[in-house]
Amino acid sequence: MAEDRKKIDLKARLGKTPAPAPVAPVPTRSAPPAAFGVPGPQGVGQGMGQYPSAHPLPGVPVGPPPGYAAASPALDPTHPLAAVAAPYRPQTLAPQATRIEVDEFAVKQASRGARKQGFVLGLVLALVLGGVGYVAGGASEQANGRAKAKTDAVELSGSVTKAKDSLKSLADKMEAGSKSLLADRKFPDTLASDLGAINVDFDGTQLAGRRFSGFPQETTHNLVEFITAVQSVNDRKLLIIGLLSRLKDPIKAQLATPPGQQKVSYVVAVDKDPSGNLAGFLSPLSAPISVTAQSIALPPKFTFANPGGGGNTELPRYAGGDIATKPAAIYVVPKTFETVCPSAQSGHIAQLGAQIGEFIRTIRGEGQGGGGAEDAVQDPKPGLIERADKLADQLSKI
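Now predict its structure.
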């Protein structure tokens, strides 16, 4: 009997059997509180009883009390009620795997955008760092260039001063040669060698490797112009040296004639042409005749080149009478002939004198050449000596 009660109580405790049919209450003595903590009628038995009630209250399901499963011994897994009597555990949902769909095109676009943005940021950073380095390097280079330019300016100033001294020496030699040729009527034998020994060393090579940082525009302009002018002077000096060498002998022969003395070199033969007309034939004398303005002594006959060719011929000097019936010759005044047909010697002297005078004016300036009326100009131009002084002063101030 006790065994059957235990089985019934077990099913009742597990709440797996339907509740028994209601029966009429049997008056009994007060029962202790339910063994499983179920409240008794009308607040009777609030504590925990030691013995369970044999008859549970009608209509009240009996379930496992909290903590019962932990206190109850585990059943044999082979028991038929093992699955039912398993300890109560609240069911929890296992985490479900979530699959995330990603648009590959969007990923590629985002990747490209990120790379492009990174490239742009890197480029900007490189430009900024490069600009900072360039500015810093440029400032250092500019400072070095300015220091180099100052040193170059000092050296150029010294070179200009040396060139000015050489120009002065050239001008002095030229003035002495001009005086000897034109005033003293003496050929300057040493002028060619004296000019060749003087070199104005200031050409374009002076600017090689120079720095012009901080050079005023006017100074740079004057420097280039001075180099060009010096080169022109050196070229003209070579021309004058060539003239002195080529014209030395003919000029010496002309200058050997005493002052005031002239040479009659041409005559006019008066005779009839083949048509019977009276004509004058100009012909050079076989030997020039020296005369002076105060004493013109002429021979009775002139020997001259045959105007028709074929050697020399002679005619009497015309002294009067009918020249149409008796041919004769008259002399040509040397000065008039030189005016119409200058001799080679006279032209050479004039050419050489003009070259020397222009050379001196270039170095000394207008009004400093030969002292003649041609040098009196209203707007004189500064010579190379004056320009060299100005340029050297400008360079020394850089």
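The longest helix spans residues 104-183.
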